[in-house]
Structure formats: structure tokens, C-alpha cells
Design brief:
mainly alpha, about 55% helix, about 120 residues
Length: about 120
């Protein structure tokens, strides 16, 4: 972390911080991790969760606050909504687009799938 701070302060740009963490939730909605992990293990994972620890550290150092976090979350939500709406307003691509822009020359098996998809769409 000191290296990243020094790098940024010397004008050499940002750094990527990797947080290796414990998987706190199920893999999918079909998974029930309680079958193979006990509550104590998960609770211990929450105590080591890096984003929560970082928030607590920054708050204790006086460089972050709940008000700043609330404003930041609101701004993130606003920006996310803009992008989601831009996506939703994007013209739907024709079914063949998923085949036509993937390869310079479409492999034979995908050409058959493309034809099948077009036939299915015409139904």
C-alpha cells in the first residue's frame, strides 16, 4: 500500500490493489453454502472482509465519512442508471449479429447455427 501511495504522490498514476477475500455468499441462487460451511466460518470471513476494514480504517484516519460514502453511493447509482438506460434504449441487434461480427470467416458449424437461428426467428 505504501508503494501505491508513493507512486500516486509522485505523479506516476494509480495502482491496482488486489483484495483476496473469503467468498461470503453462495455461488449461485441454486447453491446453499450452509451445507458445507458452518456459521462460525462465515462470521469470521465477514470480520476479515477487506472493503469493510478499509472503510473503518479510512473513517478512523478522518479521510472518509458516512456522509461522503452516502454521496458517493448516490453518484454511483446515478451514473449506473444512466448507463443502464443507455443500454435499454439501444436498438436491438438482429439475431445474426452474434455470428456476423465474431469471425472473419464463420466456421462451418457456426454457419449452420446461424442458419438455424434465422430459420427459428422467421417462425
Amino acid at each position: 500500500m505504501d508503494f501505491a501511495l508513493k507512486r500516486a504522490r509522485n505523479g506516476h498514476g494509480g495502482s491496482v490493489l488486489e483484495f483476496v477475500t473469503y467468498r461470503l455468499a453462495d455461488h449461485t441462487t441454486a447453491d446453499d453454502a450452509r451445507r458445507y460451511r458452518d456459521d462460525a466460518e462465515v462470521k469470521a470471513g465477514w470480520e476479515r472482509e477487506p472493503h469493510i476494514r478499509l472503510r473503518k480504517y479510512l473513517t478512523a484516519e478522518g479521510v472518509w465519512s458516512e456522509a461522503e460514502e452516502a454521496a458517493w453511493k448516490e453518484e454511483c447509482n446515478r451514473l449506473s442508471d444512466i448507463e443502464v438506460n443507455a443500454y435499454l434504449e439501444t436498438k436491438t441487434q438482429p439475431v445474426e449479429a452474434m455470428f456476423d461480427y465474431m469471425y472473419a470467416e464463420l466456421p462451418h458449424d457456426l454457419a449452420a447455427q446461424r442458419a438455424e437461428a434465422l430459420a427459428w426467428e422467421k417462425r
